Amino acid sequence: TPELSGHFGQIMKWSDEMRKLKVRTNADTPNDASVAVQFGAEGIGLCRTEHMFFDEHRLPSVRRMILAESSKELREKALAEILPMQKEDFIGIYKAMEGRPVTVRLLDPPLHEFLPKETKDIEALAADMGIAFEDMVTVIHGLEEFNPMLGHRGCRLAITYPEIAEMQTRAIMEAAIEVKEQDGFDVIPEIMIPLIGINEELTYLDKVVRNIAELVKKEKNSDIKYLVGTMMEIPRATLIADQIAETAEFFSFGTNDLTQMTYGFSRDDAGKFITDYKDKGILPNDPFQSIDVEGVGKLVEMGVMLGRKTKPDLKIGVCGEHGGDPKSITFFHNAGLSYVSCSPFRVPIARLAAAQAALNEAKK
Ligand code: PEP
Ligand code: MG
Fold this sequence. Notes:
- The chain contains 17 helices and eight strands.
- By secondary structure, the chain is α/β, with parallel strands linked by helices.
- It has an eight-stranded parallel β-barrel with strand order 1-2-3-4-5-6-7-8, surrounded by eight helices.
- Helix 2 runs parallel beside helix 5 and helix 16 (326-334) packs across helix 17.
- The chain is globular and about 70 Å long.
- The structure holds phosphoenolpyruvate and magnesium ion.
């Protein structure tokens, strides 16, 4: 049951007494967030904001925002339409989490993912925006990429279009202030910037985010706290983690992208040959499911060591798929992470695995 009562509840209680790792959840909706809380989640480690952009009520504004290529004014108008909806998203999530920490990640995927593919949908959008169909097709093709996972996504989007990051930061902050004032929950939002690989990407965006966060605090006369941190999901970020930690107030390892980029395996297509690799003894496990201790794991250890060289108390989590895998959780415990974050239904397993890792360490 969601309450995890009876004998099972007792085992979970013992697990919680034993474990050192905190367990958070990956959740983008208030419903997922409250299910995870019932399963014992201690916060949200990753709130992906892209799914919210696909909502049918806001997709038209999202598309207008993307296609307003040459007009800042049109983009800002579309963003102003999205802002109140985005704010409502966060209000719902903060309320469900009742004051527990919430890490919200700024928009990550390439923008063409939000654009229509079918001719009839392109025609409808062109008519809606008063643009000729042929011109619309040209703009859409111009945004497509051959290798989108290595393309114009993550923090690169926020650098080209800071106004998207600004809108999201405003929504994150205004929602937190409102929930604090109206519901009494002391939310400390953690604003997370994806796909950092160059220190200057972070220092640039840290200023963009902080300027708006401070502006909102002033407008609302609020002294609310917030953190700005980064995903660690590009191998280069782990190699310069000491520089990154000078700005970042927390790290979260995105082991899905980190595995993809360390192996050079596409996370969307690798399934086609990983079974062969396992059958032929080339790989013992699917590295997207269970952390590759020898390779990707070393990058995690290096990121932790360098980050804490700069900030000894740096909060460090993991929010890739591996955050809910028991074998990987043992590795993250030993690497000294502060928390793991996994899907709501894996939270109880993660609590048990974290306790087992602590027990094994104590036995040694
Ligand atoms: C990751 O890369 O591990 C991650 C958590 O982000 P996403 O899966 O959304 O790319
Ligand atoms: Mg990622």
